[in-house]
Amino acid sequence: MSVKEGSADTDLPTIFEVRLEQATLFKNLVEAISDLFSEAYFNFSGRGLDVRAVDSSGFTLVAFLLRAEAFNYYSCDRALSVGLSLADMAKAVRYANNDDILTIKAVEEWFYVVTFTFESPNGVIMDYDFNCEDNDDGPLEISESPGSDYQAIVCMPSAMFMGICNKLSSFGERDTVVISVDKEHVRFFTGGETGSSSIVCRQTQTVDKPKEPIVMEVKEEVSLTFQLRHMNSFSKASTLSDQVTISLSSKQSAVFEYKIAEMGYIRYYLSPDEMRNDEDDAAKEDKMQNEGDEMQN
């Protein structure tokens, strides 16, 4: 990453150029994912900006979309997918003001560099040039929309979800949280050597009160275990949306989705510990089988 203050615009033809009149939305998006993910694929196309990342374990993924209509100006002459450092980007947005004008741009001759320009109301212009990261695996493939075969779906205020995560994580030695859902309740439980904590929220929406905070769709009861640090990171997206929808299944990754008004969404895909353990056991069995075959040969 390089930084230039007050740089002049180039006359070279652009691949894409997009602009937000206020940088706060993009700042919040970066802050919501940079804790867990060190780099991400930024995919620019006619539909908008699609960002995808996976953590080092391979069990946690994120996808966020800002549709072209979310930008004050959006021009994309050619689709481009580039890997960029989220760690460096988080440092850049930390020093940007919420009311800065943000422009993201790439030009033909320097397609391996993406420039982020923050222009403050007092006339200070900061340019950050991000070099594209090498990644042999290519862009991540993540389902466009979460599947419909979840055992339970819970919709609740994002501020409530953040509060629950903060309360449960206040006990430092606790690493996991169990989310259990039945027809009437969603329960968050965590425990450690010194004790346990449980927070129970019951469904409050009725025909007479359609706007009560918690809505659940439960096909069957489900109870799954997740890493608490992931939940804490997910809850930071509460700055982007008033609601979070949690989709749970014992057969696939859970999805924590925040819809950003009509502009897009951010979705976190997290494998429960039960699925991780099954995959670890399967990997061990494969390894033992391979070692056995080698000994016979």
Task: Please provide a brief summary of the model.
The protein has five helices and 19 strands. With 297 residues, the protein is of the alpha+beta class. The radius of gyration is 22 Å and the shape is elongated.
What can you tell me about this protein's structure?
By secondary structure, the chain is an alpha+beta fold. It has two domains: 2-131, Proliferating Cell Nuclear Antigen; 152-279, Proliferating Cell Nuclear Antigen. It is built from five helices and 19 strands. It has helices spanning 24-33, 86-94, 158-169, 228-235, 273-296, and strands at residues 2-5, 14-20, 39-45, 48-54, 60-67, 73-76, 80-85, 101-107, 113-119, 125-131, 152-157, 176-181, 185-192, 195-202, 215-218, 222-227, 243-248, 254-260, 264-270. β13 (185-192) and β14 (195-202) form a beta hairpin.
Strand content: 35-45%
Give me the number of helical elements.
5
- Derived from helix and strand composition plus strand pairing, the structural class reads alpha+beta
Strand arrangement across the biggest beta sheet: 7-3-4-5-19-18-17-11-15
The percent of residues in helical segments reads: 10-25%
The number of E-state strands comes to 19
N-end to C-end Cα span: 52 Å
For the report, how would you describe the main beta sheet? 9 strands, antiparallel
Order of helices and strands: EEHEEEEEHEEEEHEEEEEHEEEH
Rounded mean pLDDT score: 82
CATH topology of the largest domain: Proliferating Cell Nuclear Antigen
- Low-confidence segments, given as residue ranges, are 1-9, 280-297
Name of the CATH architecture of the largest domain:
Box
Assembly state here? single chain
Structural domain tally: 2
CATH class of the largest domain: Alpha Beta
